[in-house]
């Protein structure tokens, strides 16, 4: 898939065409926790490692501006919508709302 050079377009295109998208860093332990949680549930998210992507700093800056002013190291999109970072992902898992969200997005079939 060819990605646009504009960070906004890249994020929107990826989020709108994939059930689950993670913008992550390969050197962050909480990003690893999130990936393992999703893989453990049977979800294979599209993962963009910001520390390895040529537009990583620009994407991270755009995410900061468009996610309530928080500096997300991990940004999770489900069903084309911004879910949140690691705290929101884990809260949804613990309170039982994550699996229904993933099913509604088409990331899980069971």
From TrEMBL:
- Zinc in keyword set: no
PROSITE patterns named among the record's database cross-references: GLUTAREDOXIN_2
Annotated signal sequence is: none
Q: Which top-rank group of organisms is this from?
A: Eukaryota
Kindly list the places in or outside the cell where this protein is found, as annotated in its UniProt entry.
Cytoplasm
Chief subcellular location equals cytoplasm
User: Mind telling me what this protein is named?
Assistant: Glutaredoxin domain-containing protein
Question: Is Cytoplasm tagged as a keyword?
Answer: yes
Family affiliation:
Belongs to the glutaredoxin family. CC-type subfamily.
Q: Which keywords describe this protein according to UniProt? A: Cytoplasm, Redox-active center
């Amino acid at each position: 898939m060819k990605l646009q050079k504009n960070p906004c377009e890249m994020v929107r295109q990826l989020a709108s065409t994939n059930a689950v998208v993670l913008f992550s860093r390969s050197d962050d332990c909480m990003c690893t926790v999130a990936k393992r949680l999703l893989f453990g549930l049977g979800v294979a998210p599209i993962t963009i490692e910001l520390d390895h992507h040529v537009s990583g700093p620009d994407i991270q800056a755009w995410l900061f501006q468009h996610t309530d002013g928080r500096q997300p190291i991990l940004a999770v999109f489900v069903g084309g919508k911004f879910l949140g970072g690691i705290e929101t992902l884990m809260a949804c898992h613990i309170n039982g709302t994550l699996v229904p969200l993933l099913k509604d997005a088409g990331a899980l079939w069971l």
